[in-house]
Amino acid sequence: MSRSERDLVAALRAELAAIDPGRPCDRLAESAGLADALATRQPVVGRLLVRLRRASHPVEVGAPGSEPAGFRWEGARAHCRLAWLRGRFLARGSLSLAGGRTHLEFDIEPAEAPILAQRLAEVGLPAAWRIRRGRGVVTWKKGDTVGTFLRRIGAGAALLELEARQVSRTLRGDLNRILNAESANVQRAVGAAGRQIKAIRVLEGDGRLAAQPYVVRLVAESRRETPEATLSELAERLELHRSAVQRALDRLERLADLGRMASGDLRLRNLGRMASRSSASGLDERGPTRR
Question: 3.40.50.261, 1.10.10.10, 3.10.28.10, 3.40.50.300: which CATH number matches 3-155?
């Protein structure tokens, strides 16, 4: 991630850690989610844990991922569950914005991975989980899901900044794709117009253009006068269907190609006759071969 992206992630974590739960049950639930937070050595999270425990009854820390006495996920209210998830994210969650992709994962004990995935599914945020190098990993890779999760656990200003950057990045990507497509279309149109004008000159030079139907001659004249015009513009100018203009231009190119092929065959035949004559002349000059 870039420095600005790392700063944004740090600001988001600090914003979540600054939330002061108003309900005792929420403080207890968030403390439960932060049960193994001290192992991460994050100062902002450590201060949060101390603050929560001072404001509530002492909580005994058990094994990583275990829940202190007084909080149980089963039967807990929605706000308590979200407080627990906020604590779990602060303790074991990480957010990556590298390469324009949003990736959030929980690095936890292997036994906790399926449990956490199940709990996230219960709050409407299903996640994938797997075992990676002996650790349990629960992940989201969709920006919308990550944004929904962060919003529900209390993210505000930092999340808005994150979403604004994502929208800006998406708009830039869409704009670049549109510009690239338009540029390619213009290049194709310019190339086609060049071929068509060249074909018109060839047919006009050998007199075949005058023998073409009226619509073909009309389209040829309009193309020569407005080489930059699109097919739709030519059709509108001549009050013809676009398909009729396309057929006329295709006919002009095809006739010019046939003329060039015929001319090439004629040149080859002439070269063949000249070679034959030269060979025969050389034989006469040498005379008959003596034995």
Answer: 3.10.28.10
Contact 13, 44 (CB under 8 A): yes
What does the pLDDT read at residue 180?
87
Q: Which of 112, 105, 146, 103 minimizes the C-alpha distance to 32?
A: 112
State the residue for tokens 């058990």: 62
Q: Residue 183, exposed/middle/buried by CB under 10 A (0-12, 13-18, 19+)?
A: exposed
Q: What are the tokens at 165?
A: 């950057």
**pLDDT < 50 stretches in the chain:** 58-68, 265-266, 268, 280, 283-291
> What is each CA distance from 105 to 1, 40, 263, in whole angstroms?
15, 15, 70
Residue ranges per structural domain of the chain: 3-155, 179-273
* 3-state DSSP helix/strand/coil % of the chain, to nearest 5: 70, 5, 25
Please provide the size of the chain in residues: 291
Long-range CB pairs of 282-289, under 8 A, 24+ apart, other chains included = none
Specify the residue for token string 């231009």.
249
For the stretch 66-73, contacts whose Cβ atoms lie closer than 8 Å and that sit 24 or more positions apart, written own/partner, are 66/35, 67/32, 67/35, 68/28, 68/31, 68/32, 68/35, 70/28, 71/25, 71/28, 71/29, 71/31, 71/32, 73/119
Residue 57 CA to residue 206 CA, distance in Å, equals 101
pLDDT of residue 41: 65
How confident is the model at residue 164, as a pLDDT?
74
To the nearest 10°, report the CA torsion of 62, 65, 66, 72.
Answer: 150
DSSP 191-232: HHHHHHHHHHHHHHHTT-GGGS-HHHHHHHHHHHH-TT--HH
What tokens were used for 21? Answer: 């739960």
